[in-house]
Amino acid sequence: MTAALKSEFFMAIKIYTKTGDLGKTSLIGGTKVPKSHIRIEAYGTVDELNSYIGVVSDLITDARSKATLKEIQDRLFTVGASLACDPDREPLMKVPDLKETDIDFLEREIDRMNEALPAMKFFILPGGHPAISHAHVARCICRRAERCCVHMQEQAMFIEALVIKYLNRLSDYLFMLSRYLGHLLGVAEIPWKPRTT
């Protein structure tokens, strides 16, 4: 498809279709489900996470971290596509796959950042700089997405095991990123000091 045809094609698609006005939506494959369905909640939360990672990326200047976040955003589109599929019809469609190497990539980045940081000797409060705080918010959204996916698993709904594994590792990455950003910015970590009296 030429650039001109692509432009014409996308201009022909309306942003509003009115098909969801009664509280239902379609999975990839055409199956209609309520918008409150746990599968919709799961991929909607992944979409929220992807958007928030965009916020984090916009707040940082470290080129390697920005490139890593871009890669993560691409993988989250893959996760979202997997979650948005009707599992009974998915084998008939070409949906991108998550791979074990995607998790290996996150682990290598976690290890790389960890080598630059002092050992953690206390619980850390989010804060100190907007980039750090937003990385923590992204981490919390990631954990919520993971909980949605585990809920699907508990309800015997099909979900790729790698999706849960990826989200679990991604939340670890985002925590480490928050610490690493503090290191790059020269911002001291804020220890949690529990009240004892």
Q: Tell me the quaternary state.
A: single chain
CATH homologous superfamily assignment = Cobalamin adenosyltransferase-like
Largest sheet: 2 strands, antiparallel
| Number of separate helices | 6
**CATH architecture descriptor:** Up-down Bundle
Examine the coordinates and then state which fold CATH places here, giving the name of the CATH topology.
Hypothetical Protein Ta1238, Chain: A
**What portion of residues is helical?**
55-70%
Strand order of the largest sheet: 1-2
- Beta percentage is 5-15%
Give the helix/strand layout:
Elements: H1 3-12, E1 24-26, E2 32-34, H2 38-59, H3 63-84, H4 100-115, E3 124-125, H5 130-154, H6 161-185, E4 190-191
Antiparallel strand pairs: 1-2, 3-4
Structure description:
The protein is mainly alpha-helical and about 200 residues long. It has a single domain (about 30-185), classed as Hypothetical Protein Ta1238, Chain: A (Up-down Bundle). It contains six helices and four strands; from the N terminus they run H-E-E-H-H-H-E-H-H-E. A two-stranded antiparallel sheet has the order 1-2. A two-stranded antiparallel sheet has the order 3-4. The mean pLDDT is about 85.
Task: Give keywords.
Hypothetical Protein Ta1238, Chain: A, two-stranded antiparallel ribbon, two-stranded antiparallel sheet, 5% strand
Outline of the structure:
The protein is mainly alpha-helical and about 200 residues long. Helices cover about 60% and strands about 5% of the residues. The chain has helices spanning about 5-10, 40-60, 65-85, 100-115, 130-155, 160-185; strands at about 25, 30-35, 125, 190.
